[in-house]
Amino acid sequence: LMGPDVVSLKVHISQIKKRLEVHARNEVIKGRLSRGLQLYSFIALGAVVHLLHRRRAVDDMETLRMLQSEQADTGDGTFSPDTLARLAQVASSMPPTPNSRGAVAAESNRGDLPAERLELTAVVFIHVYGLVAWGDPTAGGSIPLSLSERLSAGITF
To answer: Is 139 buried (19+), middle (13-18) or exposed (0-12) by CB count in 10 A?
Structure first.
């Protein structure tokens, strides 16, 4: 959905979610047809977003520093091939620094010390609506075909 980006380890997960919402709104406004446009639309309309780090749900008050230390304690540092390709693009676009590893998260007051890459997965909860009618058709127990077509246009299945 976004990134990879270079950010401070002091950033809270809630700030990343707010940035994702802003990014989603901007992408919807641009209107470029992409794989993520429908997802951006749901996020821009207020869908609930949860972030995962290493298959664990992260709390909004956690910081990237907390996730980095957890990853250092338990992690093996593996990434999906798609993530590695994106991170390589970011690393190649960054100016070279001594001992640089193309870090995605960097300490704001110690920019010369690169941090580990942190991969966050967004889980978007989309509201799905359904309509059921039952009973005697003469008493309103069925949905006319003309009305069902209009209803299905606004319902996500």
So the answer is: exposed
Q: Which residue has the tokens 């869908």?
A: 47
The mean predicted confidence, pLDDT, of the chain is: 74
What would the two tokens of residue 47 be?
A: 């869908």
Structure confidence by residue, pLDDT tens digits, 132-155: 666 677 776 777 777 767 666 655
Using an 8 Å Cβ cutoff, are 100 and 114 in contact?
Answer: yes
Count other Cβ atoms within 10 Å, centred on residue 145: 7
Nearest to 46 by CA among 60, 77, 25: 25
Are the beta carbons of 96 and 19 closer than 8 angstroms? no
Of 93, 89, 82, the residue nearest 119 (C-alpha): 82
| 107 within 8 A of 115, measured Cβ to Cβ | yes
Determine contact, residues 33/130, Cβ cutoff 8 Å: no
What is the number of other CB atoms lying within 10 angstroms of the CB of residue 97? 14
- 106 strand-pairing partners: 114
Rounded to two decimals, the pTM is 0.57
Q: Is 55 left (phi over 0), alpha (psi -120 to 50) or beta?
A: left
Q: Over the stretch 1-22, which tens digit does the pLDDT of each residue have?
A: 777 788 888 999 999 999 999 9
